[in-house]
Specification:
The complex is a heterotrimer.
Chain A lengths: L2 H36 L12 H10 L1 H16 L1 H16 L5 H28 L5 H17 L2 H16 L9 H14 L18 H27 L19 H9 L3
Helix pairs in contact in A: 1-3, 1-4, 1-9, 2-6, 3-5, 4-5, 4-7, 5-6, 5-7, 7-8, 8-9
Chain B lengths: L6 H6 L13 H26 L2 H8 L4 H27 L4 H28 L8 H31 L6 H30 L2
Helix pairs in contact in B: 2-6, 2-7, 4-5, 4-7, 5-6, 6-7
Chain C lengths: L1 H8 L2 H22 L7 H26 L7 H24 L1
Helix pairs in contact in C: 2-3, 3-4
Classes of the chains: A mainly alpha, B mainly alpha, C mainly alpha.
């Protein structure tokens, strides 16, 4: 590749990078508004509702729920490019032989899959209002268990981010120490949802403060912090890594690669 | 500044000249305060649920053995003091810091044994976390606390290995203080859990 | 050996510790003394308030002398103070008025 081709490639890369980092705010808004206003699925319907009550909830709000859930499904897909850029940043920290980036992205694929799946299950539950409400309730139960208790890979994902943050020894780290602890915190509070299967009410139920509100709040905060840090970093001419490159480009090389390049007289 | 001081240098620093010092590093305090806030929310939730069924909760509380709880409190207080002593040994350059840490780990084990005996007794009587709301909170609060104690013991194990060294670097000292602060938090949380669950009727 | 123990133990934290154990015993006595007397709810309430307040005083001392927040920067210490006062007040409020 010539220098010009490399530079224009770098410009494209930077745009993809920035867009991916912005995917989080877009996903958040694109998910939250349809989910809360359209589908009215947040706050979650209480596990204590009778089957009839839940059946009525689905039947009375059918169009809103179907449209809301469809929009939410598309919005949650935007998480994929976001987590991709997170893994790319992790790769810069750990170098070409690291595994944390893959572990994070693996967990991310599973997380996005689950969001897509539960949207499809909600659509299924809403499809034929004439079915027995027990069936509707069970489909809804499944969705909320996915939301609250699908935790093991979620924790791995955020542990990987936390560990990468602690490993980052550059002078200008992506995640400052407190942000690494925050990711650790996201992983730990997510675990609160695991108890949901034991409770139909109370703080640990899927609509409870420890089963739903705290994990969701921490997820939103943690993701927003990471998203902000990546966007802020990508805006810098040098990609925040301290290597000077031409203005308008983004140096996506790892510190080691840059050193090798520098040694080779580039 | 103090984070780059070795333990020998710290010994020579006069007390008056000590600038404000963050034990460990500031990031770990986000973790510790986050934990304390979540537990605070749990405490308030417990009291709110209790207020809706005061006599029911009081009856269930009557089934608890308060001596176990008091004993566990003293065990944790002793372990915290041991951790303080270990820290002083390292800072003052005195020997046997590792013995104090080992003592603290031992206390953690004693606490765990007492807890399992207590749990065993309850389960043998047919009481579990689905028996009633009080016992739901009892098992969840003490279980969550014990889980934190486990993490604390793991941190103590790391601190034990550090305490075997003759001299600690700045970042090692920082790690030691992080672990110590976390352990004191474990102690501190039990200081609320014990009276709240066992004593306040 | 005893002189090294003395140098290690000669710190305010040890004095604080004795008071913490004493406070634990007092709380335990306050909490258990009323078990055999049912129906005297006002005494229970008073004991409960005392026990909770004592607990948070103990916690504050642990923070200051064990966690060494006495020597920490103002913002860190304040966060701890606010947690102690806030949670204590919140718990007392729910305990007394709900």
């Amino acid at each position: 590749m010539s220098h010009q081709e490399m530079d224009s490639q770098a410009v494209v890369n930077r745009r993809v990078w920035l867009l991916s980092a912005w995917s989080w705010p877009m996903a958040l808004v694109g998910f939250a508004i349809p989910f809360i206003v359209g589908a009215k699925l947040a706050p979650p319907p209480a596990p204590g509702w009778s089957a009839e009550e839940l059946g009525n909830f689905f039947a009375s709000n059918a169009t809103g729920l179907r449209t809301g859930v469809l929009c939410a499904m598309f919005a949650s897909a935007l998480l994929l490019p976001f987590f991709a850029v997170v893994s790319a940043e992790i790769k810069k920290i750990e170098g070409p032989w690291g595994l944390l980036g893959q572990i994070q992205f693996g967990g991310a694929i599973i997380l996005v899959t689950i969001f897509q799946l539960i949207c499809l299950f909600w659509l299924t539950a809403s499809y034929r209002p004439e079915i027995s409400p027990e069936i509707t309730r069970m489909l809804n139960d499944f969705c909320w268990f996915c939301w609250s208790s699908f935790i093991p890979t979620y924790m791995l994902q955020f542990f990987a981010m936390a560990v990468a943050g602690f490993m980052d020894k550059r002078t200008n780290p992506l995640w400052p120490r407190w942000a690494a602890y925050l990711n650790l915190w996201v992983a730990v509070t997510g675990a609160g949802g695991v108890m949901a299967v034991f409770f139909k009410a109370g703080p640990f139920a899927w609509n409870g403060i420890l089963g739903f509100w705290i994990p969701v709040a921490l997820f939103v905060i943690g993701m927003s912090v990471t998203s902000y840090l990546i966007i802020d970093r990508a805006k810098h001419v040098d990609g925040g890594d301290g290597h000077t490159t031409k203005p308008g480009t983004l140096d996506l090389r790892t510190p080691r690669e840059s050193a090798v390049r520098a040694g080779a007289g580039q | 500044m103090t984070s780059t001081m070795t333990s020998t240098m710290r010994r020579r620093t006069p007390k008056i000249a000590r600038a404000p010092h963050i034990p460990g590093e500031s990031g770990v305090w986000l973790f510790i305060f986050g934990d304390m806030i979540v537990f605070a929310i749990l405490f308030l939730t417990y009291l709110i649920y209790r207020s809706e069924d005061v006599s029911g909760f009081a009856d269930a509380q009557g089934l608890l053995n308060q001596n176990f709880g008091a004993l566990n409190t003293v065990v944790l207080l002793v372990s915290s003091l041991f951790v303080v002593f270990a820290g002083r040994c390292i800072r003052l350059g005195l020997p046997n810091a590792h013995l104090w840490i080992a003592g603290a780990i031992g206390c953690g084990l004693i606490f765990s044994i007492l807890k399992f005996v207590e749990y065993g007794g309850k389960l043998a009587d047919g009481i579990s976390l689905s028996t009633n709301e009080f016992f739901m909170f009892y098992f969840v609060l003490t279980g969550l606390h014990w889980f934190h104690l486990l993490i604390g013991v793991a941190a103590l194990a790391g601190m034990y290995r550090l305490s075997l060294k003759s001299e600690l670097s700045g970042s090692q000292l920082s790690y030691f203080e992080c672990g110590a602060s976390f352990w004191h938090m474990v102690d501190l949380l039990w200081i609320v859990i014990f009276p709240m669950l066992y004593l306040v009727r | 050996m005893t002189s090294t123990f003395a140098s290690v133990a000669r710190t305010r934290a040890t004095v604080v510790w004795f008071f913490l154990v004493l406070a634990t015993v007092i709380s335990w006595w306050l909490g258990t003394a009323g078990t055999n007397r049912d129906g005297v709810s006002h005494e229970h309430e008073l004991a409960g308030v005392a026990i909770l307040v004592i607990s948070f005083i103990k916690i504050w001392y642990i923070g200051m002398y064990f966690m060494e927040l006495k020597h920490a920067p103002f913002w860190l210490r304040s966060m701890f103070d606010v947690w102690c006062v806030g949670v204590c007040a919140g718990m007392l409020g729910v305990f007394l008025w709900l």
